[in-house]
Amino acid sequence: MKKRINLPILAAEFNVQALDWQSDAVCSQTDPDIFFPVRGQSSEPAKEACAGCPVREPCLDYALTNRETHGIWGGTAEHERRALRRAARSRPDQGPGRKVG
Fold first, then answer.
1. Structural domain count of the chain
2. Which of 18, 36, 59, 63 stands the most exposed, by the fewest C-beta atoms within 10 Å?
3. Whole-angstrom distance between the N-terminal and C-terminal Cα of the chain?
4. In the chain, helix, strand, coil percent, each to 5?
């Protein structure tokens, strides 16, 4: 028997953050491949694009909150976001998606 998926319930249960910042993101007008470098490929082009992005902070907050594991978000690679999450856990006044430092 096939399992039926009730999409309205899934949508209601899914925690959708306000993503209107994405329309102002530099990456929305840039080749997406630079934000998902393959092993051995430099992430610097993506980080340079992010450096001048007006929505870098909400992008990084989104990636931290949603535990994005692939790509460059808010100018950071996954190993950098893991370090930010670890630092946030060690500070009681900081949550996983909060600005550290």
1. 1
2. 18
3. 52
4. 50, 0, 50
Q: Locate tokens 């808010």: which residue?
A: 74
**Cα dihedral 90, 92, 94, 95 sign:** positive
Q: Has residue 100 been placed in a domain?
A: no
> Could you tell me if 49 and 26 are in contact, meaning their C-beta atoms sit under 8 angstroms apart?
yes
Three-state DSSP class for residue 95: coil
The domain in which residue 62 lies consists of: 19-90
pTM: 0.71
Is residue 33 scored above 90 in pLDDT? yes
25: which residues sit within 8 A by CB, 6+ positions away?
53, 55, 59
